[in-house]
């Protein structure tokens, strides 16, 4: 008599415990559910699938046509939604690859790559660079400080009497390392004092365009070095928040010219500043007018339709595009409302709660910018805008020659 145990009674292989996940909304949703966490001051830590992997690490950072972001978030979503497929027979006879591969007889552990990438990112941290553009008095610094719940941008409430408005656009960059849930992010905020504040604003976007291209050039020179760094410092602009005045009428010609000229070199996200100066009806009418003017001028803001990778992306991004430009209010002051401390602006008729979606769209902007699309902003910068610049430079020069460390030091002098 054979001692072979029939397959149907053979004990199933033990399935190791899944890596712990951090409890926040699924990255597949463009906007996490508006619950107590959104209305309050605290920000929950991002899930492993939403933690960006630093570009330039030359690790497993380009696994999809767009890089890591979609590979991570989509991979995590499917791994979490189909546990039976990895257990070797709970609900399925086995897991089959889409290309017709072999049947998995048990759990292998492929999905742990997400946890491995999360741990690596937590050790190394990542860079995120954001530029704010708009004329003075629109609350640019306040909004950035509100987004990151810290004083990451210089505070400026208009120009002091003894302080002159810059004659030309100045570029001022401030960097901070902020940490949340064990993840470190080097945040650089680039301000542009003097933009749109002159009597003659012709070509006032040129210093900004020059600065953006200079960061691409620095990254490119590091890439072509014979002995390049393991991780190239990333100073490229991942996002440009363009502040629109809440006039309720039309966009200025300067607004259209800026976005038209720079939309192909940086991710532009238009926002309507100080939205509490308009009624809800005025705000909706102005948003529709802005979208129509941008469309008529052929200006595409982030997220661009041609960068949608699949139907899920398209569905999520269509909802975002329909809601843009976000009408926002920023404040770093807290007030007591119904027994809770909330960020807000005090007016004669009450408190405008910054994180209350019924008062303004700040929460939507924050969730879009940080919680669902931060990694994609980095990838579009690297794979689209930077690659466009890189290809142009290589075509111009017939190929850049490798740069030695001495050449780099001389160029910096």
TrEMBL record:
PROSITE patterns: G_SEPTIN
Compartment annotation: Cytoplasm
Annotated segments matching region Disordered: 1-100
Keywords, ordered alphabetically: Cytoplasm, GTP-binding, Nucleotide-binding
Extent of Low complexity compositional bias: 52-67
Alphabetical list of CDD domains matching this protein: CDC_Septin
Alphabetized SUPFAM superfamilies for the sequence: P-loop containing nucleoside triphosphate hydrolases
Any one Gene Ontology cellular component term annotated for this protein: cytoplasm
InterPro entries with a match to the protein in the record: G_SEPTIN_dom, P-loop_NTPase, Septin
Septin-type G domain: residues covered: 124-396
Top-level taxon: Eukaryota
Gly residues bias (residue ranges): 68-78
GO molecular function, one term: GTP binding
Family: Belongs to the TRAFAC class TrmE-Era-EngA-EngB-Septin-like GTPase superfamily. Septin GTPase family.
UniProt protein name: Neuronal-specific septin-3
Lineage of producing organism: Eukaryota, Metazoa, Chordata, Craniata, Vertebrata
């Amino acid at each position: 008599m054979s001692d072979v145990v029939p397959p149907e009674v053979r004990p199933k292989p033990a399935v190791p415990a899944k890596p712990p996940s951090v409890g926040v909304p699924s990255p597949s949703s463009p906007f996490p559910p508006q619950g107590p966490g959104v209305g309050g001051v605290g920000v929950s830590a991002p899930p492993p699938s939403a933690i960006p992997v630093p570009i330039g690490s030359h690790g497993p950072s380009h696994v999809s046509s767009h890089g890591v972001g979609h590979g991570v978030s989509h991979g995590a979503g499917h791994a979490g939604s189909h546990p039976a497929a990895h257990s070797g027979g709970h609900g399925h006879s086995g897991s089959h690859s889409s290309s017709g591969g072999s049947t998995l007889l048990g759990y292998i552990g492929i999905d742990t790559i997400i946890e491995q990438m999360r741990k690596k990112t937590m050790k190394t941290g990542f860079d995120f660079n954001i530029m704010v553009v708009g004329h003075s008095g629109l609350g640019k610094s306040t909004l950035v400080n509100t987004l990151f719940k810290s004083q990451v941008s210089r505070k400026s409430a208009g120009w002091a009497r003894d302080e002159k408005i810059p004659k030309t656009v100045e570029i001022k960059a401030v960097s901070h390392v902020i940490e949340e849930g064990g993840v470190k992010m080097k945040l650089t905020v680039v301000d542009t004092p003097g933009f749109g504040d002159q009597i003659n604003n012709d070509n006032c976007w040129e210093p900004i365009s020059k600065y953006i291209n200079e960061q691409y050039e620095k990254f490119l020179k590091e890439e072509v070095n014979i002995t390049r760094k393991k991780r190239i410092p990333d100073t490229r602009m991942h996002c440009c928040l363009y502040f629109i005045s809440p006039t309720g009428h039309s966009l200025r010609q300067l607004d259209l010219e800026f976005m038209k000229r720079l939309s192909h070199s940086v991710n532009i996200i238009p926002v309507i500043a100080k939205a509490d100066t308009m009624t809800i009806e005025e705000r909706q009418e102005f948003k529709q007018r802005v979208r129509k003017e941008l469309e008529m001028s052929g200006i595409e803001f982030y997220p661009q339709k041609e960068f949608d990778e699949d139907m899920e992306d398209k569905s999520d991004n269509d909802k975002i595009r329909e809601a843009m430009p976000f009408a926002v209010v920023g404040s770093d002051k807290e007030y007591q409302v119904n027994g809770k401390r909330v960020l807000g602006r005090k007016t004669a008729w009450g408190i405008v709660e910054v994180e209350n979606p019924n008062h303004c769209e700040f929460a939507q902007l924050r969730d879009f910018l940080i919680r669902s699309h931060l990694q994609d902003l980095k990838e579009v910068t690297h794979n689209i805008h930077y690659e466009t610049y890189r290809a142009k430079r290589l075509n111009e020069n017939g190929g850049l020659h490798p740069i030695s460390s001495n050449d780099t030091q001389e160029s910096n002098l």
